[in-house]
Design goal:
195 residues, mainly alpha, Serine Threonine Protein Phosphatase 5, Tetratricopeptide repeat
Length: 195
């Protein structure tokens, strides 16, 4: 019985502390309550998606993670992306057919994240064989080159990705996978031509 009353006392103190915080830190327009509710909802979806993944229901888990990614707080977004890549890897494990080039690209990125560089390279190149203007495949090859220490290949592929789609320049500025070539003056010139 003693441990039960200690727990009750702790819970009571926690409840009082929460009440005091709410009283001393009011936010206009109920913004904090809305933010807390959104975060709680995202966490609930996140836990459900994890359970689906653990149960081997990778397609359903992938869909659940993908739906919550845009609204997820930044601290969860990176983990959600990692789980999406893992789901894609499991969904296409042992298969060689893809419905779209984007599906093949997602699979190649999951291979890249797992360190399967040559397999990822083959998938990026397969996309380019069928669609020579697939800027995202050139971007993937640039990522691969950066991660494997090939600065020349990275600059070459990233230049083509940017030529085909200027948004890739902005994406590359934020992408930590290019840290391996960040000190290369050609990389800086490519990403910041206005400087």
């Amino acid at each position: 019985m003693a441990p039960k009353s200690v727990t009750s006392t702790s819970e009571s103190k926690a409840a009082k502390t929460t009440t005091v915080r709410k009283t001393h830190h009011p936010l206009p327009g109920n913004a904090q309550a809305s933010s807390d509710a959104a975060r709680k909802s995202t966490l609930t979806l996140y836990e459900s998606a994890l359970k689906l993944m653990q149960a081997g229901k990778y397609e359903k888990a992938h869909d659940a993670f993908a739906r919550m990614l845009d609204a997820a707080p930044q601290d969860l977004a990176d983990r959600i992306r990692m789980y999406i890549a893992a789901c894609v890897g499991q969904i296409y494990k042992g298969t060689t057919t893809f419905q779209t080039h984007e599906e093949r690209y997602d699979y190649a990125i999951s291979l890249l994240n797992q360190g399967n560089y040559e397999d990822a390279r083959q998938h990026f190149q397969a996309i380019l064989l069928e669609e020579q203007s697939a800027d995202y495949a050139f971007y993937g090859l640039a990522l691969l080159a950066s991660m494997t220490g090939d600065a020349d290949g990275c600059i070459e592929h990233l230049s083509e990705a940017i030529r085909l789609n200027g948004q890739n320049r902005l994406q590359a500025r934020l992408d930590s996978d290019f840290d391996g070539v960040a000190d290369d003056p050609r990389f800086t010139e490519l990403l910041y031509p206005e400087a």
